[in-house]
Every structure is written in C-alpha cells, then in structure tokens.
Design a protein that fits this description.
Elements: H1 20-34, E1 38-45, H2 51-67, E2 70-73, E3 79-80, H3 85-98, E4 104-107, H4 111-118, E5 125-129, H5 132-140, E6 146-149, H6 153-168
Parallel strand pairs: 1-2, 1-3, 1-4, 4-5, 5-6
Helix pairs in contact: 1-2, 3-4
Length: about 170
C-alpha cells in the first residue's frame, strides 16, 4: 500500500494519477460479468516485483472474493512472463494442457489470446492492458469478450495541461 498524501502537502500544484487497486477492481468486475459471475481464471503478469500490476491484480481478486464466489483463480501465484507475448503464449499453452476449463484471462499481454487461437480453442473472456496488439486482435475477432484498462497516455496530456495552467496562473479543475 502506498501512503496517501495531498499534493499540496508536498508543495505541488496538483497530482495526476489513478488508483491501481481501484482500476483492478473495475477490470475484475468486467471479467466477472463477461464470465457470467463464475468460472476458472488464469492470471498472467509481467514480473511479480512490479507494484502497479500487482495492485491491479489485488483489486481484481478482491472483487472476485467479495462478490463472485463462483470465480476460481487456478494458479496460487500469477504466471510470470516478463511482459513477453511469446513467453505468455508458451506458458498459456501449458495452462491449456493442465486445465481443461479456463473461462477467463487476466493478463498484461496478448500472448494468452494467441495461445488459445493456436490451440484451436475458443478464446475465454479476457481483460488486460490497452495494447495496440489487443486492438488488432479485437478487430480480427469481433466476438471476443474483452475489456482493457488504460491509465497511461491520457494522464500525460492531463498533467501537461495542468502544469501549463499552473505556470500561467489559470485555474484548471480537470
């Protein structure tokens, strides 16, 4: 957990960011709804030491535990793939062989989707990062049940506008 401090307490004019845990809860809710509130989920992460993805994962798992007792996370720890889509595809292929029923994928890469396509199996409900590759796969497979989270490029734009407004003495309440 990160300490909560007001930006004004730190001498800053403002703060632009998002709550990773809350983002995880929202994306976890999306996956639960896409799965019909029950089923088996695999969680595929980049590296376990990365704080932001782990907080999002914790948020997703919290909402499943609180509201969706029919959702089971298949592996005790996230499958680590170093954000490498090829490695994620390879590790997901192993999960497909290990588990006869996977109903949902929570991932930081599109490798798991490609593993299901390569195996000739229907792609389960998927949630993950907003990646160009994901957009292309969604365009090629319009029946995918998928949702993506994005908290990156728009924050830069918002931070720049707030910074310019502060420098110019203009009130910016975005």
């Amino acid at each position: 957990s990160f300490p909560t401090r007001r930006s004004s307490d730190l001498g800053m004019k403002g703060y632009v960011g998002w709550n990773e845990f809350d983002g995880g809860r929202r994306i976890g809710e999306s996956l639960a709804q896409a799965m019909g509130a029950k089923g088996n989920v695999v969680v595929i992460q980049g590296v376990l030491a990365a704080g932001s993805p782990r907080q999002r994962e914790a948020g997703a798992e919290a909402v499943w535990k609180e509201k969706y007792p029919g959702i089971k996370v298949l592996e005790a720890e996230p499958v680590v793939t170093n954000w490498d889509p090829a490695l994620a595809q390879q590790k997901t292929a192993a999960l497909i062989a290990k588990y006869p029923q996977i109903d949902g994928i929570y991932s930081e890469t599109t490798g798991p989707i490609r593993a299901f396509i390569a195996a000739g199996k229907p792609v389960p409900a998927y949630v993950g990062q907003s990646l160009m590759d994901l957009s292309c796969l969604a365009a090629d497979h319009p029946n995918f049940k998928m949702a993506s989270m994005d908290a990156h490029t728009w924050m830069v734009r918002l931070a720049l506008r707030k910074g310019v407004a502060a420098a110019e003495g203009i009130n910016n309440t975005e």
